Amino acid sequence: METKFINESGFQDFVGKLVESRNLVGPVAKRNKFVFGEINKYEDLRLDYDVTLLPPKKLFFPPKQDILKFYGQKGESCIDPDPQILLGVHFYDIKAIDMTDLLFRENNEDYNYLANRECTTIIGSNIQNVHDRAFFGSVGTEVEPKGHDGFLTKIEGGYVFEIITAKAKELLQFGDFQDANENQIKQAEKVNAEVLTKCSEKLNNTSAEINKKVRNSFDSKIWEKTAEDCFSCGSCNIVCPTCYCFDVQDDWYLDQETGVRARSWDGCLKEDFSEVSLGQGSIENFRETRGSRYRHRIMRKATYLNEKLGGPACVGCGRCSSVCTSDIADPVNVINQIMEE
Amino acid sequence: MEGKPKVKVAYFDFACCEGCQIEMTNFGGPAFLELLNHVEIVEFREAMTETTDETIDIAFIEGSFTREADRKRLESIRERANIVIAYGACACTGGINALKNHQNDYKEAVYGKDADMPHLDSQLALPVSAAIKVDYEVNGCPMNKDEFARIVSHLLHGKTPVIPKYPVCVECKLSENVCLYELGGHCLGMVAKAGCGAPCPAQGIPCEACRGFASNPNEKTLEKVLKDRAGFSEERAKTKSRMFTANCRYDAPLKDKE
Ligand code: SF4
Ligand code: SF4
Ligand code: SF4
Ligand code: SF4
Ligand code: SF4
Q: Which residue owns the Cα nearest ligand 3 atom 2?
């Protein structure tokens, strides 16, 4: 692995050149928050962001994605990937992308996701500002961020650029990079280690301890009690970088001959998520209460997928905590309470 | 679908502003004509006189049921129609008309000296479903024309339309809007029925739940959030959702009958 350095003004030129020759996507401001969006000039890029509203998976797995156009009985795939560079992904989101990569690859490979994913170059960046609900420093610490192509760390005077894959190496042509010296590499390591201690929220136990205890708390009263204030609004699912459930619907255009099959992000907190047809118009809900749905999400994040993913399916971004209007979604609150039960 | 007999549809209206019919014309001429290739309109008060008493495949009903005298007309529509679709908030929930259900001086305020004229007499403003069985609802004030087209398309193809039960927040989040609570505002998106695509919060305007409630709305927690996060008074938090949901709320006049 090579490590390069580029000074502040060189970095600005580098971004300017990328904008000219590639589709560049990165964190941009939206009102008082941030989102991943198109970068059209250096000033759009906000590497000082704390967290984005939706996670970066939206760039390969859009919230609503056409998957098939149909004409009578004939169908045509909508897969049409467009190469893009995704710049400025924080390490917790890199971990999450690695998880969705695995989940969409296993069993039936999902080309609607993979085609977009494979033509994306992912360049991570260090966290300059910590979101007040984040807890990435204390969750799944055994899981390494991987699957990205390069990683930028802001240090004094410029950026250290770790080149991980050929896709990142190919970008060096756009900037005036030099080999990073030992001191610069050390500074970058320090910046990335220190940020882990800066979260105001913190899980008090290891993933293994949490996995065991939460799994054994299936019958705890805490689920129904906490979920008394749940709106079943699924916001906690939709903003989560590791959620991957989707719903598929067909729609006809007004001509009634042609139409489109589209999928959109689904979430297990929504009441309709767990409804199944029993035929003849009757419906059964296999997670009927708010508490059982609330429990399911926490179980999915803290225990059910651990074996498959090598750690919890939560990366501590804090998005769910901040979007829950009644403020009950925070995994830290509920898990720390369970650990003390 | 060439050669198939056209589906016979009829439009009826009750207490409403007819804004939903106008919304229908917003499809734009050519697009709407494409849909008309597949249906035959046998009754449309706006455009034709009520003539037939033959069977109708789909009856579209706009407006609230607010006069006992209308019950008979609704029942006869139900008898003739294979499928009844209520469209627009007035027909689906009583809509904005139902604001009068918890007031008693509205007649004087609206009609002044004519308040006692017999033709102005009306009772509670109720959804069409309070008089007859309704098969599908196209919610919204005005109704959402795309949802209308989706439901009709599914029925034309013999499929059951999927109508969301979840709240507007879902669609608001999918569009990556900044939540109004994060901007110091308020919103009813957590209890409002989705399907509109959350256009109001996307424009920075609070959702007023014009589509009625999502299933099992958490009204108690809504009051709590309006007080704790938006700084509402107890009274304002309690009555806030009434604009469009007077017949859906826990204190609705006919709640026990539902
Ligand atoms: S936990 Fe919060 S965000 Fe999640 S569904 Fe319930 S109310 Fe919505
Ligand atoms: S569960 Fe919450 S904190 Fe964890 S990854 Fe998902 S959104 Fe982030
Ligand atoms: S937490 Fe729920 S919505 Fe998210 S991936 Fe798991 S089952 Fe699906
Ligand atoms: S703005 Fe309204 S609809 Fe959107 S997430 Fe917030 S509460 Fe829900
Ligand atoms: S966002 Fe709310 S008020 Fe606006 S159309 Fe949808 S349900 Fe109606």
A: A268
